[in-house]
Fold this sequence. Notes:
Elements: E1 2-8, E2 12-19, E3 24-31, H1 40-50, E4 62-66, H2 75-85, E5 92-96, H3 97-105, E6 112-116, E7 120-124, E8 130-133, H4 145-163, H5 170-180, H6 185-193, H7 197-202, H8 204-212, H9 216-240, E9 245-248, H10 256-264, E10 271-272, H11 278-290
Parallel strand pairs: 1-4, 4-5, 6-9, 9-10
Antiparallel strand pairs: 1-2, 2-3, 6-7, 7-8
Helix pairs in contact: 1-2, 4-9, 5-8, 8-9, 9-10
Amino acid sequence: MRWLGVDMGGTATRWALVETGGKVVSRGETPGASGLAFDAAGRAALDAALAPLRAQGPVDGAYLGVTGAGFADDPDLRRLIARALGVPEEKARVVNDMVLAWRACWPKGGGHLLASGTGSVGFTMQGETLLIGGRGTLIDDAGSGAWIALRALDALWRRIDESGKPEGAETLARTLAAAMGGSDWEATRRAVYGADRGAIGRLAQPVAQAAMAGDPLALDLMRRAGEELARLARILVARAGAAPVAVIGGVLSLHPDIRAALEAGTPGIALCYPQPDAALTAARLAQEAFA
């Protein structure tokens, strides 16, 4: 028997396939997608992320943590995912990716979770299920990769509006222009409004490059991102009770000032930095659910 585990984020979808006894048969990565498959483009992205997994052959059950999925069962989303994977609907379990990440970090419970990648969210199932933030790129996701990128572009274009040039943020303007393929509004318009949230989130990398080079605007954004993540951690502990907070996600690796601001803003809170294998955890949860 074989079970499939999937960890779907906005930037990438990681998967693992295990067989009886827990041996990993294969694993890999496909493009990112989202459970927000409300239109043809969203459904196409979901299918593009999952369809390659059909080549791995039949499975006896699949467990997926999907960014943008709700916390209640969504039959429509489960149906789309089962069809893309080529498995019966009753053999597919779909949860929000934070549920999967929390289980990967705290398999025996005991702590809270702070995640910051393309988006940002605080989450816990310690005592109660509680979600802090995680409202998506259009509303908040403060401290995330997409948030950093959008705040950088907003600040740059405000300066350009005022003086005709990115005065005081020239390095940031150069790194973003190189990533977007141009420095004019058309390049920005295509990079933001013609892209998905994963592509927007990846624009945090040139912002971090500018910060490493000493650009003051980019450096300020690194600090502010850490402060926003600290806010999520403080709220988690205040509302759900004292417990360690596991911090995961690619944003912390962008620049040391992010982690420094996070730690400065969380006095008295025990932070840890695990590197969970969410896809493998999902495969093992699939085995538990469907064996």
